[in-house]
Amino acid sequence: MKYMCTNLELKVTRTIHPVGQGAFYTEVLHREGTEDKNVVYDCGLMPDYKIQRLYHEIHSKFPGNEDIDVLFISHFHDDHINGISELAKNRRIKYVVLPQIDKYDWFYVLEYFVATDTINVDLISDLRDTLKNSKLIQVSPAGDSDSAISYEDMAFENSGPRINGGSALSFGDETKKLWHYAVINPTFERDLTQLKTEIETIKHNGVNIKVIDLLDPAILNDYKAELRKKYENIFKKGNVYSMCVCSEIADRNIYHSLFHFSRYHKNINFAFFNKHSIIHDKEGCLYCGDADFNYKFKGKSTLDYLKKRLGIRNKHIGLLQIPHHGSLHNFNIDLYNLLCKPFVSFASYGTYNTYMHPSSYVMATAGIYGVSIGVDERAQSVLSEEVIVYS
Hints:
By secondary structure, the chain is of the alpha/beta class. It has helices at about 50-60, 80, 85-90, 105-115, 125-130, 190-200, 215-220, 225-235, 300-310, 335-340, 360-370; strands at about 10-15, 20-30, 35-45, 70, 95-100, 135-140, 160-165, 170, 175-185, 205, 205-210, 245-250, 255-265, 275-280, 285, 295, 300, 315-320, 345-350, 370-375, 385-390.
């Protein structure tokens, strides 16, 4: 295919990998005269006995000793992170962008316990150990008065250990910021503070426990019912705090795009592409992890915060990851109105899973707004997109 453009600046290749009940999404940024940049969003798969399917995709995509320039982690459930140790083998992961873990490890351990009924007090410490050679960039939860950092002032080389939601991390050089990733952590700091306060009313041997005590398996086990109740009073059923990432052109006043979707496998349940090409100005992609866009607590809404942080980026998103593998619980049709009707929506899921993902209603509704695509564990169900950035 020939691209009718004057000056080719960048080629971005996105791949929605067919791993099944999990998530492994990659982007390769290719610019003539420079080394390719490899970007990964989530890397996990459930159940564990099918993990080799994910490993196959990792090694097929990165067969040598390639560096991973950036790894984005949406949240800390196994089906989004249990392949990271394999990804890190013989590869240097330079930067990891993830929800803030400093002082919040207790929250993720509790959330994991509530969601899976499994105690794993080493959840965050094990992840830190796996990524000990990477630079961690933590995205703070939403504060009452936090403000986004302007992406013009942000680059990976200059980024600090913690940034506010809405900040964008840019690729390019000093004269040309070609591509960026806007990160949004929709967890509300006040919710975490309130949960901490409520947990610390629980008494153990006549003494109020501290949230750090949740890193003691005995405490989690002994106060299981109370902890679950306090958690669900605020966060309902969980899957609220997934970090979202918007991937798009950094400056569309200068640069433009043409993109090309490829889909080679016909799934009888959902629509499909077959080498479908289109010139369009919505090259952006929004990765949502397991975010719950129905979540609202005391007047605060995940969807409202997403809207606030995306700003005008909402008009540029042509590809949308349907959150939580197409779950009805996390789906909110207002997301499509906010994003001005994405061209393509996709859900990653396992052909056989106990959660009944994806919801037929969700996929059919998404199809009304554009095209909905299911990507499962079958190799031929891969979805890829090529974005050409030109000036």
